[in-house]
Write a structure and sequence with these properties.
344 residues; alpha+beta; Lysozyme-like; 3-stranded antiparallel β-sheet; 7 helices; 20% helix; binds zinc ion
C-alpha cells in the first residue's frame, strides 16, 4: 500500500448526517447535511473568471501580501441569487438597483467558483477598514508552553505580564470576554510573543483583528435553497488548499469573517458548529494536493450505490464500499475501503 492509500486509510471516518438551519437575511430553511467519509472531493476546481474592471469603486487595485483566507457566506438563501448573480453584483456594483460597495475575491457554489478580484489585491469584505495592514508588535515576553492573554488597565497582558502594548479602548472597560470567538493574533517570533493589530468593533461590540480586507483573500460561499451545502464546504476547502499552496499559508491562516469584525459570519457554518469540521476538510484537501504535486493521479470508483465518483454520500442507510486508485510513474495501485452502516 502506497502513501496515498495509507493516508486515506488513516483519515477515512464514519460519516454522519445533521439537520441544520441555513440562515438567510430574508428567510431561514432546514437542510439535511450528510458529511463525507473521505473528507476529499474527487473533482477539479471549476473557476470562472469574472474580474471586476479597475474602474470600479469596489476594486481597490492596491497590491498586498496575503496572510489570510477570510471565509464568509452570502447570507442569501433566495435561490436565484446564486454565485453568478453575486459575482455580477460585484462586477456591476449593483444590487437590485442599489449601489453595491463591497467586493470579494471569490464566490463558491455547486455550479462553480466565480473569481471577481485578483487574489493579491485589497478587497472590501471583512469590515476592518483598509487603513491597517497586517502587523506584529514584539511584546518582549518570552514564549512559554502555555499562553494566556488578557487586558488589564488598558494594556494587553500575556501570562500575567504587561506587554506594554495598548489594547483598544471603548466606552466600557474591555477584558478578554470582549475578544471575538477566534481570539486575537499572537504569534511566537524569535522566542517572544508578538501581538497583531487589533481594534474594537462598535457594531458587533467585539475586539477583532485588522488585515482582513488588506491581507485576506475573501471568499463568499453560497447557501441558496437548493444548493448542496456540504458540497459547497468541500469545494471551498479545495479552493482554500490551492490558495494556501499558492500563497504559502497554513491552516491557522484560514479564518472566519468573525475574526476580523465580530460579525456572525459565516453564520450557517458557525451556528451549526461546523467550522472545525470544515478546517478538517481543508487539511485533507491540502495533504492530498501535496501528494498530487508529488505525481499521483488519484481516483475513486464507487462499489456501493450510495457514494458518487466525487466521494459524496447520498445516504447513510447501507454499507459504503469504494476503491481508491492511484497512478504514479505508470505504477497503478488500489485499495478497497468499507465503512459499516452506522444508522441502524
Ligand atoms: Zn462575511
Amino acid at each position: 500500500m502506497n502513501e496515498v492509500l495509507e493516508y486515506f486509510q488513516k483519515i477515512i471516518t464514519t460519516p454522519f448526517a445533521k439537520d441544520i438551519t441555513v440562515y438567510g437575511y430574508e428567510f431561514n430553511y432546514q437542510h439535511h447535511l450528510i458529511t463525507s467519509p473521505i473528507f476529499y472531493l474527487f473533482d477539479e476546481l471549476n473557476i470562472i473568471e469574472n474580474i471586476a474592471p479597475l474602474s470600479n469603486e469596489n476594486r481597490d487595485g492596491r497590491i498586498r501580501e496575503k496572510k489570510y483566507i477570510v471565509i464568509h457566506d452570502t447570507g442569501d438563501t433566495t435561490s436565484y441569487r446564486d454565485a453568478k448573480y453575486w459575482s455580477n453584483v460585484v462586477k456591476t456594483e449593483d444590487y437590485e438597483n442599489k449601489p453595491y460597495k463591497a467586493s470579494f475575491q471569490y464566490v463558491v457554489s455547486n455550479k462553480g467558483i466565480y473569481h471577481n478580484i485578483p487574489d493579491d489585491e485589497i478587497a472590501y469584505h471583512a469590515g476592518d477598514s483598509t487603513k491597517y495592514d497586517y502587523a506584529l508588535y514584539d511584546t518582549g515576553i518570552l514564549a512559554a508552553p502555555k499562553m494566556d492573554i488578557d487586558i488589564k488597565d488598558g494594556y494587553y497582558y500575556i501570562n500575567n505580564q504587561n506587554t506594554m502594548i495598548k489594547a483598544p479602548s471603548a466606552d466600557k472597560i474591555l477584558t478578554k470576554k470582549d475578544f471575538n470567538d477566534n481570539g486575537i493574533l499572537v504569534v511566537i517570533k524569535n522566542g517572544t510573543y508578538h501581538i497583531g493589530e487589533t481594534y474594537f468593533n462598535e457594531t458587533y461590540q467585539k475586539i477583532a483583528n485588522r488585515g482582513g480586507n488588506n491581507n485576506g483573500i475573501g471568499i463568499e460561499m453560497c447557501i441558496n435553497e437548493g444548493e448542496n451545502i456540504y458540497l459547497n464546504y468541500q469545494i471551498l476547502a479545495k479552493l482554500c488548499a490551492q490558495l494556501m499552496d499558492q500563497n504559502h499559508l497554513e491552516i491557522k491562516d484560514i479564518l472566519p469573517h468573525h475574526y476580523f469584525s465580530g460579525k456572525d459570519c459565516p453564520m450557517t457554518m458557525r451556528k451549526n458548529q461546523l467550522w472545525e469540521h470544515f478546517l478538517k476538510l481543508v487539511e485533507v484537501e491540502y495533504q492530498v494536493l501535496t501528494l498530487k504535486k508529488a505525481g499521483y493521479i488519484i481516483t475513486l470508483e464507487p462499489i456501493s450505490t450510495n457514494i458518487t465518483k466525487q466521494g459524496l454520500l447520498k445516504d447513510l442507510n447501507s454499507e459504503i464500499r469504494f476503491i481508491i486508485k492511484t497512478k504514479k510513474d505508470n505504477v497503478i495501485d488500489s485499495y478497497e475501503y468499507h465503512i459499516k452502516n452506522t444508522s441502524c
